[in-house]
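Minimal example, chain plus S-adenosylmethionine.
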Amino acid sequence: MSFSKLIIKLRLPSKLKGIFFVLRLDRLVPIHLFNLIAHMAQLSKWISVHKKTCDNDFYNPIFNYKNRESLYKRVVADHNLDSNIDYLEFGVSAGISFRWWVDQIKDSDARFYGFDTFTGLPEDWGRFKKGDMGNNNKPPVISDDSRHQFYQGLFQQTLLPFLSEYKTDKRKVIHMDADIYSATLYVLTLMSPFIKKGDIILFDEFNVPLHEFKAFNEWTKSFYINYKVLYGVNNFYQTAILIQ
Ligand SMILES: C[S@@+](CC[C@H](N)C(=O)[O-])C[C@H]1O[C@@H](n2cnc3c(N)ncnc32)[C@H](O)[C@@H]1O
């Protein structure tokens, strides 16, 4: 009998688990640290695989937030996005990225949907506190374009009602910029039945191990999502993926 079979026969994993629970060994484990290290390792592995097959700047020691605009421009040009797309942005705040997309996509049939509390983050996120990144409790004003609409409130309150009315077979660009794990996973999960081959998902903070990356990783595994990474800038901080 092999060693692994013997361990299973003696029910060692289950006995060890019992000892762990009874002695409350969780008190000795730095859970957050282990969690962070495990996800950092998964992200590092993910980057090492995908950097070979997509356009990216890894490893770039200088972070420049403006690089995300060059990523957007590449996506629009290479994938003919100046057409009748639906653009959905989750995390709009003052509307800097939202406005960029409304300005660039000229097609009159394109539609732009923005979701946000506009009162800021619903939870702490790293050095940012709950309520940071708000926009004075109101959506930004984009007065010169009637193709857009904003949905104010938690995604957890606004997205289901929106989707119950949302009927489209248009190509979609989904921009995930909520930063936090819970919001990202919630949106990707609810959007899953609507996401089709050819849709593009942009992430604004992809390489944060316990937030957008963790949510993306769990979502792709749980929903058997096939995807191709198109571009990454700022060491995959901003990342564009194509659904296949
Ligand atoms: C980084 S800001 C968005 C920045 C914007 N996309 C830009 O580049 O100009 C993140 C936003 O996500 C929003 N957000 C995070 N979690 C949310 C949730 N569960 N429901 C609604 N809004 C959320 C916050 O209110 C915040 O305004």
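The pocket of S-adenosylmethionine is lined by residues 91-97, 116-117, 120-122, 133, 154-156, 177-180, 183 (CB under 6 Å). The CA atoms of residues 40 and 117 lie 29 Å apart.
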